[in-house]
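Cytochrome c biogenesis heme-transporting ATPase CcmA
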Amino acid sequence: MADPLLQVVDLFCERDDRVLFDGLCFSVFPGEILQVEGQNGSGKTTLLRILSGLSRHYEGQILWRGEPVARQVDAFRRQLLYFGHQPGVKAILTAEENLRWYAALDPGIDLQQITPALDAVGLKGFEDIPCHMLSAGQNRRVNLARLYLSRAPLWILDEPFTAIDKKGVAAKEALLVEHAARGGTVMLTTHHELDLSRHVRRINLDELSGTKCA
Ligand SMILES: Nc1ncnc2c1ncn2[C@@H]1O[C@H](COP(=O)(O)OP(=O)(O)OP(=O)(O)O)[C@@H](O)[C@H]1O
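Tokens:
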């Protein structure tokens, strides 16, 4: 088996005097889609935010390609696409302007792919409309278009299918499977029943927490 891309070693997190997880250990490998499960409030979002470098409320180690993330923060961020709960788009900008803004942060992105990406998420004809005039699902689709542009190997996606209709979910599931087939890695949470179940490995925070690393 290939070396792990990401390793979580004895992770501990407490919020408001409540331990969310303790001794959390798992690894994620290239080509994997890993679904983080657990009941509401078990800490799925918290975990994904920690792994994305957005929260420091933890103890323990996170390794990226065998080295502590803390020692390679910038390099790690360049390898990561994070998709959080918020729509992640600027309301005043159009769909196309949002993607141009996103592309400006990553010189590896091909600007020629912006129009095809918007087409792929079903926003053909909506490219020039400010996002505050789009629906909730359309705003999520603008954000999801980043998946078609990103060259990052690690995608961390928190509830990526919220407010997306059935057809949109199917297209996005296919995209995740393609990313994994190319050797990319996906970590996601979702309360949706996934059609891509056979491609997914699951970890459950309620079960994993409290088990120390071997
Ligand atoms: N910024 C914060 N400050 C204090 N407590 C927080 C903060 N963010 C989350 N928590 C607490 O941490 C716990 C875990 O929240 P989290 O959002 O990670 O759960 P989750 O598993 O993603 O839940 P859900 O399935 O409902 O989305 C909750 O009890 C929440 O109240």
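The CA atoms of residues 30 and 185 lie 5 Å apart.
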